[in-house]
Amino acid sequence: MHEIPFTVFDELPEGLLECEATRLHAILPGPSLIHVPGKRGRALFVSVLLHGNETTGWEAVRHLLRHYADRRLPRSLSLFIGNVTAAAQGRRRLPDQQDYNRIWRGEADTPEHRLARRVLAELDRRELFAAVDVHNNTGKNPHYACVNRLENRFLHLARLFSRTVVYFIRPDSVLSLAMASRCPSITVECGQPGQARGVDHVFEFLDACLHLDHFPDHPLTTWDVDLFHTVATVKIPSRLRFGFGDVEEADLCLLPDIDRFNFTELPAGTAFGRILREGVQPFEVTDEAGREVFDRFFTINAGWIQTRTPVMPSMLTLNREVIRQDCLCYLMERLPLPG
Ligand SMILES: [Zn+2]
């Protein structure tokens, strides 16, 4: 089996900051970890482009490193640039690749899992201050931060980015979860790619992280954050044909503007779409323990797929490739803050 070339740089490669995400492959042989020294030694770890089409993180880092072009960073930065080959094509991942944000746990013997173990081993040689993995999504979502541990230091880091914070432990193979045993760690979701507002926000957030001396350990209050818990993942079975709005030749029609439900607390009885054939189970709904829980969250009523309990979805998207490669959405509930 082939190995993915992984390179560690101890300085910024010449010309890198001139490259858009689609051009990084001209300078980087593949996934790369780049150490840039700063005034404080414990590094901020930032990962970008685990999904090749999610360019906001790279744009924000370009902006940040140009901002400090003629002076030292306030704190050292360790930058991981992930799926360079998918980025060259503006894709989340290539068809023959594992998802770069689903490879950070377990013993699986794929080239991507071996890459992940090499990256983590390299990071374990350094002391880290915090870890931030930057993503975009494709539907209408607010900017929000995700934590995989309910610890005050993690929540303070998340709060620096957004007052909307999501706690999840599934999928359990994401980078932010692997980093959580090493330092305060979050994933940030900064809207759709290509928006200047997202780049500015991530730039300001990373700059604030570089200036931070430590993370407070005192509890946050409901004045500080809205905390939600991802309780289930919703997928469309691969054998089903689906569309948006009124389509024929499908098993399942979803509402054409379904992504407006993101981060909205929906009452029971809210329709997601309808099935065009009787007996079709439109969604695979899985809880944190991996159990099938369609009946807990949904019901079919005269062909309409309706929510059975109050829920709040996130990551609903109209992008068919993302739905096929990842999922239709996640379902969340409000969570009290830890004391
Ligand atoms: Zn992503």
Could you please describe the fold and organization of this structure?
- There is one protein chain.
- The chain is an alpha/beta fold and 339 residues long.
- Helix content is 21%, strand content 27%.
- It contains eight helices and 17 strands.
- It has helices at residues 56-67, 84-88, 111-123, 152-161, 175-179, 196-211, 294-297, 320-325; strands at 7-9, 32-36, 38-48, 73-81, 128-135, 144-147, 164-167, 185-189, 226-235, 242-244, 252-254, 271-275, 284-287, 298-301, 304-307, 312-314, 329-334.
- Strands 1, 2, 3, 4, 5, 6, 7, 8, 9, 13, 16 and 17 form a twelve-stranded mixed beta sheet that branches.
- Helix 4 (152-161) links the parallel strand 6 (144-147) and strand 7.
- Helix 1 crosses helix 6.
- The chain is globular.
- The protein starts with 6 loop residues before the first strand and ends in a 5-residue tail after the last strand.
- The protein binds zinc ion (ZN).
- The site of zinc ion (ZN) has 4 residues, from loops.
